[in-house]
Amino acid sequence: MKPRPLHKITNRSSSITNSFVQAIIPSLEWTPEEEAEALSILDISKEDFRCAYCGNQATDWDHLRPMVKNKRPTGYINEIRNLVPSCGPCNQSKSGADWHSWMLKSKRTKNLPDLNERIDRLRKFVEWGKVEPINIQDLIDESSWKIHWSNHDAIQNQMKESQIHAARIKAAIKARLEQ
Ligand SMILES: [Zn+2]
User: Fold this and answer.
1) Whether residue 179 has pLDDT greater than 90
2) Ligand 1 center to residue 10 CA distance, Å?
3) pLDDT of residue 129
4) What's the pTM?
5) Residues, Cβ < 5 Å to ion ligand 1
6) Mean pLDDT score, 64-78
7) CA 175 to centroid of ligand 1, rounded, Å
8) SS (H, E, C) the chain
9) Least CB-packed of 42, 50, 72, 142 within 10 Å?
């Protein structure tokens, strides 16, 4: 039996990118009334907190429209009109995908007997939200933007180089063990 491969340093690449986006994205506070309205559109109660996608117990609030695409901010921010209750596995599986096409093809959702009702409720939620993406880049000066992404690229490159170096160390250790 082959053991599950251990982590590579570069396995962290997309979480670093997510952090670089989240670190600059603003959050809007919301009122308990707005939250109650969001949940009622989705037919979810606060006491029985269910995933808007699959119906399992929810643990997270997922950004319905992803905040990161192609390693850059999409312009959607952290606000109740872009957040739906989600279980961890749906949140991870959907990741940066469009929610509707993801629900039609994901094995977590595509065979649900109430798939169409779930999609209809999420569509109503989208209509209620009227969320438009913000052009984040236009709101700050060009040099701040460039520095932020060059910091990002420097960390990513350092991780790639570190991984190459680490792989050499691992190979050397393995060779010694096999002697
Ligand atoms: Zn789910």
Assistant:
1) no
2) 28
3) 94
4) 0.85
5) 51, 53-54, 56, 87, 90
6) 94
7) 45
8) CCCCCCCCHHHHHHHHHHHHHHCCCCECCCCHHHHHHHHHHCCCCCCCCECCCCCCECCEEEECCCCEECCEECCCCECHHHEEEECHHHHHHHCCCCHHHHHHHCCCCCCCCCHHHHHHHHHHHHHHHCCCCCCHHHHCCHHHHHHHHHHHHHHHHHHHHHHHHHHHHHHHHHHHHCC
9) 142
